[in-house]
Design brief:
With 163 residues, this protein is mainly alpha-helical. It contains six helices and three strands. Helix 1 packs parallel to helix 3.
């Protein structure tokens, strides 16, 4: 059964309809590659210097859930648990680990591919009545990775306009 999807189960299918090959690729792309990258940079780049910052990118789907987002939500939620536990491991080496969790973000793909009624529904459920921009997300990451962040670790920072 062909089931090409980036982060969702296509309408009309249920979790049990999706072959493990499909959902394992989603876990690999959204969880395993992140774990592997952090594992590679921790020793030399961060621990040896006794200073470092790790910012992981999650999604509001990890907290809110959404139809068809079961595997994606699980992968992104796993990043939250990973960051909390890694904060304990890396904290003594002055390495701070956090998660940025964007809401629906105003990217070219969202603007081109997401139906207008879905974007409008998201806007209506967002206190600021605007979707975050990629720059909003980047500024949050930049702060968490800067020297201005001297003791925030194990946190999940929502960049979602209050959603």
């Amino acid at each position: 059964m062909p089931c090409a999807f980036a982060s969702f189960i296509p309408p009309g299918l249920h979790l049990e309809d999706v072959p493990p090959k499909e959902w394992s690729a989603l876990l690999r792309d959204n969880l395993e590659q992140t774990l592997h990258t952090v594992q590679l940079v921790l020793p030399g780049m961060l621990r040896a210097r006794k200073w470092g910052r790790v910012a992981l990118v999650s999604s509001h789907i990890a907290r809110d859930g959404a139809p068809g987002q079961e595997i994606y939500g699980a992968a992104k939620a796993a990043l939250h648990g990973f960051a909390r536990s890694l904060a304990w491991d890396a904290g003594p080496d002055r390495v701070l680990v956090n998660v940025v969790s964007p809401g629906l973000t105003r990217t070219a793909g969202v603007l081109a591919d997401l139906p207008a009624q879905v974007r409008e529904r998201e806007l209506a459920q967002t206190p600021t009545r605007r979707l975050s921009s990629p720059e909003d997300v980047a500024r949050a990451i930049a702060f968490l990775c800067s020297a201005a962040n001297d003791n925030i670790t194990g946190a999940v920072l929502d960049v979602s306009g209050g959603r």
